[in-house]
Automatic annotation (TrEMBL):
Top-rank lineage group of the source organism: Archaea
Record-linked SUPFAM superfamilies: Phage tail proteins (SSF69279)
Taxonomic lineage of the native organism: Archaea, Methanobacteriati, Methanobacteriota, Stenosarchaea group, Halobacteria
Protein known as: Phage protein D
Cited Pfam families: Phage_GPD
Amino acid sequence: MSRPIYGAADVGGETAPIVLGGESLPGTQSPYGLTLTQDRWNTSAELEVSLLQDTKPETGSRITCSVTGERIFTGTISSAESRSGWYHVIAHDPIYELKRTTLTQSFQQATLVDIAARALEEAGVDDVSISLPVERTSVEFTGTRCDRVLEKVATWGGGVWYVAADGTVHVTTTIAEMSTAHDESAVVDAAPGDRSMPYQSVRVTGASPASQKGADAMCLISSESLVATAGDGTPRFDYHDDGIRTQAMAENAAQSILEELKRQRATGSITLPGRASIRPFDTLSVPDAIDTQTYLVSGITHRLTSQDGFRTTVTCGGVLAEGSS
């Protein structure tokens, strides 16, 4: 007999249990439990959950959700519908607002940290952690989505950005510190795979002297645009961005793009008994009889249902290590 699965959400200080299955009145929908989807792309994580509580959750309220005692999500309620004795709630993480908010501003010799902080402030995101190189650039954004501003800044700094389970938005180069290795012995279903990288090398070009002004241009010795490369071979991915104003930024961007291409090597998915602790950017390995490789976790889907209990499906990202066959 399987052990019970416990799940709950906190909405405005009120804890509500997650409803699973059960009898429904004629003409009404049955509660289904919980589904959480999240990936490492700039896609908002979405929580869909059935909650048992006395008052209707308010749209815009903060919600945290835990399964088996571990938090898996923090975000804001987008909608709440009353059903037969329970509430159907949909919530999103801060990326939802970053994608809905645009930034129009000109920056002169601003640090990458300042630009990232401004985009987050514009979207009303308060819980942030930014750790980027001390590089400066002059750049103008006109009606640019705030998530795209973060994507640019992270690339210029050679880092990534993501949302943690506590709702904090991180823009950082310390990727290894946020990654946890999971060596799983129990697997429900597995269909991982490996594919060739779409590009073998990257060439990044930044601003040319003609596009820079004042001190920026005076510091340049060459009349050529800033250029940096990473990787070796063809096909080559070419990337141009006038916001790149220093050689260090160009080199950071080239390496960042190459690492991203490596993270896209794998394909397929692995379904496990529920693992609340697994997050995008973690690593996953399974018994050698199933697969000998270690994969980057590109995305996760947590499901909690009365039929299957708690299950986690991992979308495989890059192949990080290969074992002996």
